[in-house]
Structure formats: C-alpha cells, structure tokens
Amino acid sequence: MRVGLQIALSDASVDVAQPLSQRQLSVSLLAIADEFSRTAPLNLCLILDHSGSMSGRPIDTIRQAAQRLVDRLSLGDRISIIGFDHKAKVLVPHQVVDNPASLKLQINQLKASGGTAIDEGLRLGVEEMAKGKQGTISQAFLLTDGENEHGDNDRCLKLAKLATGYNLTINTLGLGDAWNQDVLESIADAGGGAMSYIQTPEEAVAEFSRLLNRVQSIGLTNAHLVLSLAPGVRLAELKPISQVAPDTIELTVLHEGSQSIVRLGDLMVEVPRIILANLYLNQMAAGSQAIAQAQIRYDDPTTSAEGLLSEKISVYADYLSDFQPTPSSEVQQQILALAKYRQTKIAESRLRQGDMTGAATMMQTAAKTALQMGDEGAATVLQQNATRLQSGEGLSEADRKKTRMVSKTTLQAE
C-alpha cells in the first residue's frame, strides 16, 4: 500500500509585474493498493445514545443497524460497544470478533431511558478503542439524537483531539432533528471523521452501512501533509489550509521550522482527500520558479510501520512578462466547493444573529455557487431555504441540519 499524490495550482502562470499574487495549491492524495496489498483489521467502536428520547422506533432501528454492522465484520476485526444516557457503560468490552451471534444478543439489550451525556460515552469509547489500535484501522461511530444536556461540549472536543493523538478516528451520526450540528461537526472534524444525518429512524441501517463502506475502504492512516514553502512564498494568515473532499473541513496548521504540517487522518483507496492551501507569492524573476514542496507522512497499519514518507513533489510557477491567465478548471471546482461551505457558514451565523435578510442573501449566494459547481442537490436545498427566509419563515431544525450537510459535501442521494 502506498500514497498516490497529485499537485496542481489554481493558475500556474504568474504575472511577473505583480508585487504579490495569490494562488490556491491543490493537493490530492489517496491510498493505492497493489496486488500484494492486504487490508488491516477494523477496530470498530459503537458509541450509542440510548437516552429516553430514543424510546420506540429509534432504539429499535439503532439495534438493527448495529447488528447489521456486526454481520458485515470479518473474523479478526475488533469491536467494542458503549451505551450512554446521562452516564455511560461498556456494553461490549474490546474484543476480537469471533462470535457475532453473541454480540448481537448483547446489542439487543439496549433499552431507552435517562438523559444524554455524550462526553462520557466518548471517553469510554476512546479508552476501549485504544486497547485494539495496534495494527488496525480504528474507527468510532458516535450516535446521538439529542443535546449533550448532562455533559460538557468542550470536553467532547478535547476527547476527539485526544483520539487523533492515538490514531483513532471519530465519526458522528445525528438521529432526528434535536441534536446539535455544531457539536457533532466539531467532534467529527477534530476527530478526523465524517458527520452523518439520519433524518428518520428508517434511514439508520442504510446510513450505518454507508459509513461502514467508507471506513472499510481505508488503506493508510495518520496521514500528514508536510508543506515546505520557498522564500518569498507564504500561507494566508486566516484559514490557510482546508479540506474540500470528501468533506469540507477547516484544518489546523502546525509549524515545525520551515515546514507547515497538517494532519489529514485516514486515506481511502480510490477516494481522494483533496486539500487547498491558500498561498501568497512575492514577485520573482521571469521563468519557472520553485515555490513549494509537498510530501505525505503516514502510517501503514498492515505492517505497523509509522512515519513513512511519500515521494516529495516540487511545485513550480511560471512567472511571465506576457502574462495570460491559465486557470485550472479542476482546481476552480475545488475552490467553489470551499466557497459553498464558507458562504453557508456565514448565512448560518447571520441567521443566529436574527438577520434573516442577510442570511437569505448569503444562502442564495451559496446556492448559486453550488449550481456553478454542478451540485444541484445542494443548490436546491440552499435556494429553498433562502426563499423561506425571504418570505419571513424561519428554518426548521431539519432544514438547518440538511443545510449543514449539503454545505460540507454532496447529498447522499447523489
């Protein structure tokens, strides 16, 4: 298993007469399997809300979804299951999957009662998952249908960040319309995972299955982008590096000497992570100029090898006296995806401030951006919400959650 790495500039041509030019550097990376590659065992932890609001159809479908996941695990995979209401309990301690029927019987014991303490469930989940992290692909599915009423949201964020330090990934799933998308998004983004929206209980089995498909396609873990910039080149100060696929996330940059380092997390086979770095280029002499080098540092769980390095790729810009723009259509699409996310975030912020007119205007702008990039599903959701706001209607919780989801990625139906 190795890293496939591709680099492109939003426009490789630069006007030699300009004292300062801005460019987006696109970094696309994925895991590439060869004929001898094998898949590392999955170390899966289910962290399941069984508070009183889950009573009835919700808890029934979550039990069913969890049992279906067990059916799809391979012998040799690991599993642990945490249940939480206003406190948390280890229902299935970390173990190798060798008796699926017994696991499904234990899942069937989940009963709905009590309040909600997400952080306690997350804490136990990280502890159990950490027991099986060596030589595995470690993933948690954290599901809740409500607010963290008996917990601490800041603690959730700290636990998600702690998990990534152990090379553990946290995915979040919100069921129904009463959960807090800001909290679940922050946990998933900090935990290197994905956020999912299960609008009705009947969708639970399909959404769990979709997320399992995603994590079963992971080949390499703990990937970091290591970016070295040439003299006269710098990152933007505000939101310098972002991920635009498969989900849009604002990334945190660490600096080690002359290198800028960003943790990206797990790499799937055939599904690339696409990163955009916002660069400012000083004026340079005419000709081809090296402006950056990019390399990926990663772990291979199949061999327990850590800190492996991909090939190092140099990035060049052509400084031209007879400058003509040569924009990359592919990178422009990625820039639009990031703009859609940020415009929607601004719309949500204005809505929270009570500025319905400003929210509607920005939501409509995001809809136009989505349409421009060919994301018709997002464009429809965003335009419908803009129209509701323009007519004086508020947005339902379902509207708000679907808005957040389409801002980060494309609709699941697509």
Folded structure, characterized:
This protein has about 425 residues and is of the alpha+beta class. The protein has helices at about 55-70, 100-105, 120-130, 155-165, 180-190, 205-215, 330-350, 355-370, 375-390, 395-410, and strands spanning about 1-10, 15, 20-30, 40-50, 80-85, 90-95, 135-145, 170-175, 190-200, 220-230, 235, 240-245, 250, 255, 260-270, 275-280, 285-300, 305-310, 315-320. The strands form 3 sheets. Strands 2, 10, 14, 15, 17, 18 and 19 form a 7-stranded mixed beta sheet that branches. Strands 1, 3, 11, 12, 13 and 16 form a 6-stranded antiparallel beta sheet that branches. Helix 1 (about 55-70) runs antiparallel to helix 2 (about 100-105) and helix 7 runs antiparallel to helix 10.
Briefly, what is this?
The chain is an alpha+beta fold.
Distance between the termini: 29 Å
Structural class: alpha+beta
pLDDT average, as an integer? 94
Number of strands: 19
SSE sequence, one letter per element: EEEEHEEHHEHEHEHEEEEEEEEEEHHHH
Count, helices: 10
Q: Provide the low-confidence segments as ranges.
A: none
How would you describe the shape? globular
Q: What descriptors fit this protein?
A:
seven-stranded mixed sheet; 34% strand; alpha+beta; six-stranded antiparallel sheet
Topology:
Elements: E1 2-9, E2 13-15, E3 20-32, E4 42-49, H1 57-72, E5 78-84, E6 88-96, H2 100-107, H3 118-130, E7 137-144, H4 153-165, E8 169-175, H5 181-190, E9 192-198, H6 204-216, E10 218-229, E11 233-235, E12 241-245, E13 249-250, E14 254-256, E15 259-268, E16 273-282, E17 287-300, E18 305-309, E19 313-320, H7 329-352, H8 356-372, H9 376-390, H10 397-408
Parallel strand pairs: 2-19, 4-5, 4-7, 7-8, 8-9
Antiparallel strand pairs: 1-3, 3-16, 5-6, 10-15, 10-17, 11-16, 12-13, 12-16, 14-15, 17-18, 17-19
Helix pairs in contact: 1-2, 1-6, 3-4, 4-5, 7-8, 7-10, 8-9, 9-10
